[in-house]
Each structure stands twice: as C-alpha cells, then as structure tokens.
Amino acid sequence: MLIGIVGKPSCGKSTFFKACTLADVLIAPYPFATIKPNHGIGYVKIDCIDKELGVKCMPRTGYCVNGIRFVPVDLLDVAGLIKGSSEGKGLGNQFLDDLTNADALIHIVDVSGETDAEGKETNGYNPVQDIEMLENELDMWYLRILNKVWKSFSKQIQGEKKNFSQAIALQFSGLKVNEMEVTQVVLKGKYNTERPADWTNSELLKFSHDLRHISKPMIIAANKSDRPASKANIDNLKKAYPELIIVPCSADSELALRQASNAGLIEYIPGDSKFKILKNLSEKQKSALESIKRNVLDDYEDTGVQKVLNTTVFDLLKCIAIFPAGAHKLADSKGNILPDCFLLPENSTALDFAAAVHSDLAKNFIKAIDVRTKKAVGKEHKLKHRDGIEIITR
Q: Out of 159, 187, 296, 370, which residue is the most buried by the measure of CB atoms under 10 Å away?
C-alpha cells in the first residue's frame, strides 16, 4: 500500500511526512523545498490482539506500545502542485509521475490562510481555492492520458465491440486502475459505452474525474488548524466539499511531540490526547508543550496526524487488519509472538488472506482456524477487522 502526500508548496507536506516517519527531510519556509519525492514508513494504529490472548506480541515490522499496535504503510511526499501542473508548470509532470502507484492521496491544505496559491506568505487567503486547484489538476492529468488515445481508441472499441471496462483499465493500468473500478464508474455515471466515439469533451472530463476519484481516493488534512483563522476556514471547506473527508490537524505539533518522545523528554503515543513530562525541561520547552496542549490537544483532542493516516487506510480505502497466528501456538518458527499484521481490503476471505501471506498457502489451502473461537472456517469465509487466523495447508 502506497499513500501519496500532496498539496501546494509550503502547505506543510514535508512536516506532515516527517511527523509520520521521523525521516530526515528538508523543511523550509519557501516554495519547492521538496524537489525529489521523499519515501518513508508511517503507521496506522489499532488495538493489538495480544492482551485478549494473554500474550505479549513481538512485531517483526512496526511496533506495539501498551497493547496498541502500529502497522506500517508506505508514504510518499512529492513536490508541490500549483495551477497548471498538469501542463508541466512548476514541477507538475514530475509530481504526477511520482503518484502513479499511489493507492490513495492525502491532500495537505494550509487552513491558516497565510500562504497563497503558490505557497508564498500572505494574509486572508481562502484555502477552498487549494482544493479546487488540486481537484482540477488531477482531473486534467487523467484527461490528458485519455485524450492521447481517445480518438482512435474509442472508434476501435466501438467498431470491434471490445469490452469497454477492460480496455479502459488496460489504458490506465499504470495508474493502478482496475476493470471493476471502471465498471463502477460507468454504471454510476450511466455512460454510453456502446458509442464512446460520440462522447463530448464535457463527458470525457466528467469520466476522467469519476475515474480519478475512485482509483485515487483523497482525504483532506486541514493543516495548521491552530492558527487564528483556521476554524472558520475548516468550516468553509466542509461546506464547499461535503463529500470529502476533512480532518483538522497540526503537523508541527505532532512532529514536536514525537521528537520530544523520541528524546525521552515526554511519554507520548501517536494519536493520544495527552502526554506526560518525564524530565526537567527548559522554560522554552515547557512553553512550547503548553501551547500544543492548549491550542491543539484541548481544542481538537489530538493533533490529527494519526487520525488522518487511520482514516485514510480504514475509512477511505476500507481496509481491515488481520493477524496470522496459530490457534494453539501464537509464535512463528523463530519464537516471535504475533510478529505480523496484514492490511487487506474489507470483505477479504480466508483464501485472500492466505494469498497475501504467501502464494503457496493459497495454492495448498485446506481450511483456516479463528484463533479466538478455535473454529475452522472455509476459504470463502469473510474476515473481520482484527481477526487472528491460522491457515491450514495440505
């Protein structure tokens, strides 16, 4: 799973990325500080099943703190997007190429109103314009791909009566578009796939928009939520885009808390509503932490960064977390207890899970066993979030 972090220059993308990963990246108060994409590992947060089973887990990837499991996901912080990026302005072409393999996008929007459309300092800017801009640029990205071949492509489909969804999925395969997604777009939009050569330019744009929304779903991270104008701007975003998921966040605050925790100054679990001071701090450090507590944690309950990641994976992409585990032996061959946790699409079956762990498990599948109930289930059994499953093979 790869999640792209997008937005205009100086909106806080790299700060958000660093807060999630603690990677060493350049954070600077000027446009296009990020040129090459930054790749790192973030984590979604779930309740581990170890306490229920009376054991202490030993994660092979990710980590677990007090029964809270952090499961890794790939994050990609790309260059800033400005108006005209789909036509190559700024670093647009590079930006879009970097996103081809993304499963979902997190759009970092500076809701303070203190940076303009190109990331330069200003006052009173309306961040609704940033969503309008990015939505349009992404739509034009898809439309450009479609327009390159549409004239001959549509006539060929029409003349040879080819499967429309299959043909479109093949054309967009580089963007991880699948046939089922195309079919969903066609049915919802009631597009005439028997005569695609007759489609108007507006129909092509709408189709590109619909296909992009389903294949690259996007959440809005309303960043810098602790600034004076932020709450009013967040309300405006929700009114303008009621169909989008909008989560207030403060990447600066999350980064400060994680760095302080990493240095042993405070006790803090990402996504929590509080922290505990462990050492004597300077007045400057105390003041900074008090400001985060007062302006962010007390107001929003958390910094929002962990909530953005969790909402992206579990609500936007509709994934579930599954633990591979023996019904009677919870350790792997090396003695590690509950070492792994897999993120799968909702409605995944026991056979889907077996294939995700290893193709040989799916090939030789006999049955699966639920570690909680110790009951055997078949290959078509639909899994639930936080299930522990053992695969039995021949």
A: 296
| 51 vs 68: CA distance, rounded Å | 10
- Domain residue ranges in the chain: 2-37+78-126+217-313, 136-210, 319-393
**Amino acid 200: pLDDT:** 92
Pairing of strands 387-393, 365-370: antiparallel
Q: Is the pLDDT of residue 29 over 60?
A: no
Range with the lowest mean pLDDT among 165-174, 203-212, 246-255, 353-362? 165-174
DSSP helix/strand/coil, 136: helix
DSSP structure class, residue 115: B
Residue-level length of the chain: 394
CB atoms < 10 A from the CB of 174, how many?
11
> What is the rounded CA–CA span in Å between residue 223 and residue 100?
24
Rounded to 5°, the CA angle 365-366-369 comes to 100
CB 78 within 8 Å of CB 34: yes
Best CATH choice for the domain 2-37+78-126+217-313 from the list 3.40.50.150, 3.30.1340.10, 3.40.50.300, 3.50.30.50: 3.40.50.300
pLDDT tens per residue, range 268-307: 999 999 999 998 999 999 999 999 999 999 999 999 999 9
> Using CA atoms, how far apart are residues 380 and 74, in angstroms rounded to an integer?
29
Domain 319-393 classified CATH 3.10.20.30?
yes
Q: Reduced to 3 states, what is the DSSP secondary structure of residue 199?
A: coil
CATH of domain 136-210: 1.10.8.470
Mind giving me the DSSP string for 337-372? BS---EEEETT-BHHHHHHHH-HHHHHTEEEEEETT
pLDDT at 65 over 60: yes
Residue from 333, 391, 307 nearest 20 by CA:
307
- Yes or no: say if 363 and 374 are a contact pair by the CB < 8 Å rule: no
Helix (H) or strand (E) holding 76: strand 68-77
Question: What pLDDT score was predicted for residue 36?
Answer: 74
- Whether 109 and 21 have beta carbons less than 8 Å apart is answered as no
pTM: 0.91
Residue in the block written with tokens 């963007």: 175
